[in-house]
Amino acid sequence: MDMNSTGIMVLRTAVFLSGIFIIGGTLVAAIKTFIMPRGVNVWLTRVVFRSIGFFFRLRVKRATYEERDRIMAFFPPLALFLMPMILLVLILLGYILLFWALEPRPLPELFYLSGSSLLTLGYASVNTVASKLLEFSEAMIGLVLIAMLIAYLPTMYSAFSRRETAVVLWESRAGSPPTVAEMVSRSYRTGELERLRDVWMSWQTWFAELEESHTSLSPLVFFRSPQPQRSWITAAGSVMDSAAFILAAVDVPFDPQAAFCIRSGFLALRQIADFFKLPHESNPRPDMPISISRYEFDKVCQELVAQNVPIRADRDLAWKNFVGWRVNYDDVLLRLAALTSAPYAPWVSDRSALIRTAKRKP
């Protein structure tokens, strides 16, 4: 074998291995994205969503919230629509390299052959055993990828529906946008202020499902609520703030389920933030500063006192206890509110812009 033939064999081997690498990497990314029941940060999915999200954020940079909500609502569906196409294109490219390595042909012929096999069209074929094996394997991969997408979307929209049902129910209890004052006031007027155990337990379950679904089905984080003024992150923040305020400032018996609800909430938000590699305080000190001021806290207390809600007399201790609860989720809550461009809600998205400003500082 002369040097020229050796060089050609080396080139064809390198091209064949490159094709295997592209196909293998694409299949691993598809399995991690569509099948694996745990939160895995897949590089391909991350690149696709970040690239598409970059152009969307440029578009809404100076838009009003209504315009931003309308435009950003289209972002996750478009990214999901393009994701399987990108996977199929990568498989197409990988098999083009494999077909060329087996039998070099003009690029148009390789494109027709790979495309016909991937989409099971059957109008292009090669009558060699090795090429037939490649054709069959590519057709099988194409069918499997399409089947995975068909199974993936119903699972995602089922989780979305469960999430939004709880968000709507919380709006009826805490107002729109949800606030601590409204939640506590309504609970007092209906005689439920000392009987919220079932409410906190239901939200513990919601937070557990949120952690699982919004990491294993990560595009759900960016899916916006059907109504522009609602958001899963503002509801989550309002629930934890309400539980923290009642535990710290309302003169009712201590309810351990409220404490467990807060813990379930901040653990879920931290897991989601870790998945998206958002920096946050993972072990904050009880005396660390929070984004809510003492003035805002006292204002809510005064508003509730005016409605005869039993508020603890020692406001200093109540504020200290509230800070001790809020510090566990203050940072991560605001970062997720900024990530999702959440609608206005007191104590949540109304101050998440501070996070974006801090990031721009040198």
In summary, what is this structure?
The chain is built from 14 helices and no strands. The protein is an all-alpha fold.
Structural overview:
The protein starts with a helix and ends with a helix. The protein has helices spanning 3-34, 43-59, 65-72, 75-102, 107-118, 129-174, 180-189, 197-216, 232-249, 256-275, 294-305, 315-326, 330-339, 353-360. The model is unreliable at 354-362 (pLDDT under 50). The protein is built from 14 helices and no strands. The protein has 362 residues and is an all-alpha fold. The longest helix is centred in the middle third of the chain and has 46 residues, at 129-174. The protein has 2 domains: 3-150, no CATH class; 175-360, no CATH class.
